[in-house]
Write a structure and sequence with these properties.
15-stranded mixed β-sheet, 7 helices, outer membrane lipoprotein receptor (LolB), chain A, two-stranded antiparallel sheet, single chain, alpha+beta
Length: 424
């Protein structure tokens, strides 16, 4: 009798072990702790575990998981923090959104002043995706003006860090001015003016560009100042989908998506989901004391293959998933945008070539801050533009971010005369 009991117990144990090994019985998922690193060596073991109530598998897009498995991406888990919307932003949306008109044929809008152009967007609206992107296009929530110092780093998967350029980006928003006496500067025909200034090395030092973005379905105006020629040249404004010289960036990649939404052939809202994204980016992204070493850029894993992966903490964020189809002449055939459900900024985009193959990953590292003028906003502290076909990336760490600095950025600078003076 005792022998039979032992045999029954042993048989049961073997059956349970066999069922577990073959996946017949559910395995209790573990809740992972903040600081856990998802990497190639453990991804299969922890995919069914959870973090903040979401399984790891459900938080990874297919292309992010592919980077973990094939390109050495390591993701450190971190709890998400609320991203508060400034009360002045919410008030402007309430005050002005009713006067915005959307044309269902052209996908153009008119009547925008400040805040989000669309306060409520139904997922059942056939134009929901366009409206989501319009919200980001008009109101990226980055202050009235900003002054950013940044590096442009060229990184090869085979050779590591190859080039480093030093630039300044200045921007003056002409609409959605929440700290100014009036929300619109000028006559209401412009959205933003932007200046880029080359600081070094010598081949870019003294180069300056000025762009004017209009609130109409027309190309931006561009001018460039060349210090060696001591003159200003007008550039083609139709280059919104062209490469930015010598980098892995298209003009349309800047700010994750940089085109007027109506220029896209179609935009489709695929739904909502949760992803892991860098929404509380580190601020210590440049260490000048370590100049010339991999430690100069502590937020980039320059030491290890492929030399461009970020060293950041990633948080769970709920996003809208938008599939955007560019016009036929665009280098991309399709773009997948993952946009925060609360403030519409894309965290990253997945971009496909004309054959439909995955080509580029553009990743923005954002952080909620309070501007020098007291405005609650979201700052973009670095970006990665990764071209997997060429095994090359351009990383852009912003080492001197200033939003709404008093007296530093003025309207007078954003003229041809101002461009020439700043470039000298």
């Amino acid at each position: 009798m005792q022998t039979h009991a032992i045999l029954r117990v042993n048989s049961a144990s073997v059956a349970i072990s066999l069922a577990l090994s073959l996946g017949w019985l559910p395995v209790q998922a573990a809740e992972l702790k903040a600081g856990t690193v998802i990497e190639k060596s453990n991804i299969d073991a922890i995919k069914n575990d959870t973090f903040d109530g979401h399984t790891v598998a459900s938080l990874l897009t297919e292309k992010v998981e592919w980077q973990i498995r094939e390109w050495g991406l390591r993701i450190t888990l971190d709890h998400a923090k609320p991203i508060p919307l400034d009360p002045r932003f919410a008030a402007a949306t309430k005050k002005y959104s009713d006067q915005v008109k959307f044309d269902t044929n052209s996908k153009e809008i008119t009547g925008y002043v400040a805040g989000y152009p669309f306060a409520d967007i139904s997922s059942k609206d056939p134009d929901a995706a366009y409206k989501l992107v319009w919200n980001f296009y008009y109101a990226p929530n980055m202050g009235d003006v900003f002054y950013n110092k940044y590096f442009v780093l060229g990184i090869s998967a085979d050779r590591g860090l190859e080039t480093k350029q030093d630039w300044v980006l200045m921007r003056y928003y002409m609409k959605n001015r929440l700290l100014a006496d009036k929300p619109v500067a000028g006559d209401g025909t412009e959205i933003v003016r932007t200046i880029n200034l080359g600081l070094g090395p010598e081949d870019v030092k003294g180069i300056g560009t000025l762009s004017v973005r209009y609130d109409a379905a027309r190309f931006d105006d561009y001018w460039a100042y060349l210090k060696t020629a001591r003159r200003i040249r007008r550039l083609s404004g139709g280059a919104w989908m062209d490469p930015v010289g010598g980098s892995d960036i298209l003009n349309d990649d800047l700010d994750l998506i940089n085109a007027r939404p109506s220029w896209y052939k179609s935009m489709k809202l695929l739904g909502k989901r949760w992803i892991l994204a860098v929404s509380d980016a580190r601020e210590d992204i440049w260490n000048p004391a370590k100049k010339g070493t991999p430690e100069e850029f502590p937020a980039i894993d320059i030491k290890n293959f492929p030399h461009w992966n970020p060293i950041q903490k990633w948080q769970p964020r709920e996003v809208y998933v938008v599939e955007a189809t560019p016009p036929p002449e665009h280098p991309y055939s399709k773009r997948m945008l993952y946009m925060d459900v609360n403030y519409y900024r894309p965290y990253y985009t997945e971009n496909y070539d004309k054959k439909g193959d995955f080509w580029k990953f553009v990743n923005g590292h954002a952080r909620p801050i309070v501007s020098e003028g007291g405005l609650k906003m979201v700052a973009l502290l670095s970006m990665d533009f990764i071209d997997f076909k060429s095994k090359h990336a351009t990383s852009v760490p912003i080492y001197g971010h200033r939003a709404d600095p008093k007296g530093v950025v003025t309207m007078e600078q954003f003229t041809l005369g101002g461009l020439e003076q700043l470039s000298r």
